[in-house]
Design goal:
Blueprint lengths: L1 H24 L1 H9 L13 H60 L9 H36 L1 H139 L1
Helix pairs in contact: 1-3, 3-4, 3-5
């Protein structure tokens, strides 16, 4: 009887929990079948956080209601079975008391002692020992019955406490998951802030480099303009110098040509004078010779 009661208690609590866990795994699919719409995953384009939260809430409510209903059914079945066993035990106890009462009356009658064999004596001693043990076992059964009666008197309270304990466990798991998600979100936010800070610093550095590049380009442009202007000036000066030199050359050439003409004139004059001088010498010589002849 004790084993049966323990099995009933296990069915009321342990077995119902196992059933609930098994049922809880397929509640999402059952609820989806009842609603007529397939479950939406986060990877699908039509899913959204609010719809997913709504589905999760519905599934959790359905699972909780099913667990509560299954637990109540198991407890009620256990209570009914216990009441049936209690009436059965009460009937057995009543029959045992009646038998003991009848046996006491029979013993009161005086009978003549009958000689018995050794085997009968041993059987009699064994029967007496078992009869002595029966009251203790009956007392234990009565104690267990009273204890189980107290247990089943507060079925609602036990069921409520069990459901509250499971609910606290589920809430703890949900809060732990939420806390873990919040920690991950916080870490991701810190990483994003760090990356944004680095990006901002790189942007400032790029802007400063752009400004430096503009300044260098401006300086190079001015330098090129200066060099070009210097080259133009040098070229212009060279052209002017060449023009001057060409003019001087022309002037010198003209002067040389003039001097050459004058030199030729002077040479012709010298030649003429030389001829005249020779002629005059020839005449003087002739006259001198003529005079000598005379």
């Amino acid at each position: 009887s004790l084993a049966i009661l323990f099995q009933l208690q296990e069915l009321a609590f342990g077995g119902s929990k196992g059933k609930n866990k098994k049922k809880g795994g397929g509640k999402g699919s059952d609820s989806n079948k009842k609603d007529g719409s397939p479950p939406k995953s986060n990877g699908q384009p039509g899913s959204s956080p609010t719809i997913d939260d709504d589905w999760q809430r519905r599934d959790s409510e359905f699972v909780r209601d099913e667990n509560e209903r299954t637990l109540r059914e198991a407890l009620m079945l256990s209570k009914l079975d216990f009441e049936e066993k209690q009436t059965f035990y009460a009937q057995i106890k009543k029959e045992q008391e009646e038998e003991q009462h009848k046996g006491g009356k029979v013993k009161k009658k005086k009978e003549k002692p009958v000689p018995m064999s050794l085997e009968q004596f041993n059987n009699l001693s064994l029967n007496q020992k078992t009869k002595k043990k029966e009251p203790s076992s009956n007392e234990n059964n009565e104690a267990t019955i009273l204890e189980n009666q107290k247990f089943f008197d507060n079925v609602e309270e036990v069921a409520k406490k069990t459901l509250e304990r499971e609910q606290r466990h589920e809430n703890y798991k949900a809060t732990a998951e939420q806390f873990g998600k919040e920690i991950l979100v916080k870490q991701y936010e810190e990483q994003l802030e760090k990356q944004e800070f680095e990006i901002q610093a790189l942007r400032l550095e790029v802007d400063s480099l752009k400004n430096d590049l503009k300044m260098v380009k401006g300086r190079n442009k001015k330098l090129c303009e200066v060099i070009c202007s210097a080259e133009m000036k040098s070229k212009a000066e060279l052209v002017v110098e060449l023009d001057k030199m060409s003019r001087v050359r022309d002037e010198l050439t003209q002067e040389v040509s003039n001097l050459s003409g004058q030199l030729e004139q002077e040479r012709s004059k010298v030649n003429q004078l030389t001829l005249d001088l020779k002629k005059s010498h020839g005449k003087k010589k002739q006259t001198a010779d003529g005079n000598n002849k005379e």
